Amino acid sequence: MRRGRVSGAALLACVLLAGCEDSNPFPKDHCTLASIGDMEVLTPRGSPVIPVTLDGHKVAMTVDTGAAFSALSGSIAEKFELPQTMSNHLVGGIDGTAFASLATIESLGVGIGSIHNIVLTVTPAQMNRTIAGLPMAGLFGGDFLYNYDVYFDLPDRQFSFYREFNCPADKDIDLGWPNGFYVLPFEEGQAGHFGDQTKIVIPVTINGHKITAVLDSGAYRTMINLDDAHSLGVTDAQLAADHRVEVGGIIGQAQVAHVHRFASIDIGPEHFTDVPMVVADTQAPSLLGADFIRTHRMLISYRRDRIFIERHAHPAPPSPALGQPAAAAGPAPR
After folding, report:
1. Mean pLDDT of the chain
2. What residue numbers bound the domain in which 142 lies?
3. Alpha helix locations (H) across 193-254?
4. In this structure, how many other beta carbons lie within 10 angstroms of the beta carbon of residue 269?
5. 170-193 confidence digits (pLDDT tens)
6. In what helix (H) or strand (E) does residue 15 lie, and over which residues does it extend?
7. Are 83 and 200 within one domain?
8. Residue 123 maps to which CATH number?
9. Phi and psi (nearest 5°) for 258?
């Protein structure tokens, strides 16, 4: 069983399906993945954003596998006049750390379910923008996601939360993808100030050297931190000559980064060459971002510590477009 720090949002994982372990309405001789509803991904690019309801208001939230905690933006908490209390809860991201308050939500609706009277972290970052006409409200983080199998079908802009019933943990899940799939094992992050044990840490090979990266759907693009870039042979002089972009995170402060072309990157059995990736001077881990997830169908099984990824005849690498801002889709408590 996955170990992690659980906030009030994690209670939602059981209630939405009435899916506690003692409630199993499915035949015991069949492995069943039960969904709380297939949801449309509102964003055509970048981090996946889904529609939800917050105290009866239609809003949008990012699905963020790199965030430790589910959270609301400060602007939404103020707009809906949610009761808030200060706390000593410290959140951090690629642009620093900050103390966060807590807000009480009377009703949060996701898919076909809802839960009442929960408490979520309120981040300092303001999110004064809309997606598909819905105000951005915050994100679902690891405290919520690890209760599910999380299914991304971003090529078709679909997303689902699943719960497994009668599925042996020692057997892979075959989703019937016509090109087959490969399995990418992952490790749980180490416990730390930001609840890192909820993160998905995977091995990647860049320029022939192995590093680890966090699978982060909340990161608009794949990012290599400066220490890892140096270990891969990238010099400060090379970065100074690279294209400059801005990245942002939990504090909402822009930070200058660079887009550097790496000779190769290997993710599982997939091999890509001449790949541009963002390099940032940050204490955060390197991130495999939404640019990779966008080109694949995948099921993240926290129960198994495995990612099932559809094989492609012509897979696409993470490839940020030069000249575009490299900010994350929303505030991400790391």
Report:
1. 80
2. 38-150
3. 226-231, 236-241
4. 10
5. 888 778 888 889 999 998 765 443
6. helix 9-15
7. no
8. 2.40.70.10
9. -135, 150
Query: What are the tokens at 35?
Result: 């969904």
Place of tokens 């982060």: 216
CA separation for the pair 147, 157 (Å, rounded):
22
Amino acid (one-letter) located at 296: H
Strands 134-140 and 57-63: what pairing?
parallel
H-state helical runs in the chain: 9-15, 74-79, 142-145, 226-231, 236-241, 290-293
Angle 158-159-162 from CA coordinates, rounded to 5°: 140
Is-above-0.85 flag for pTM?
no
Looking at the domain assignment, is residue 131 inside a domain? yes
Let me know if residue 66 belongs to a domain. yes
Tokens 């939990």 correspond to 250
92: tokens are: 């951090």
Cβ neighbours around 52 below 10 Å, total:
20
Separation of alpha carbons 49 and 122, rounded Å: 18
How many whole angstroms separate alpha carbon 86 and alpha carbon 99?
9
CA Rg, the chain, in Å?
Answer: 19
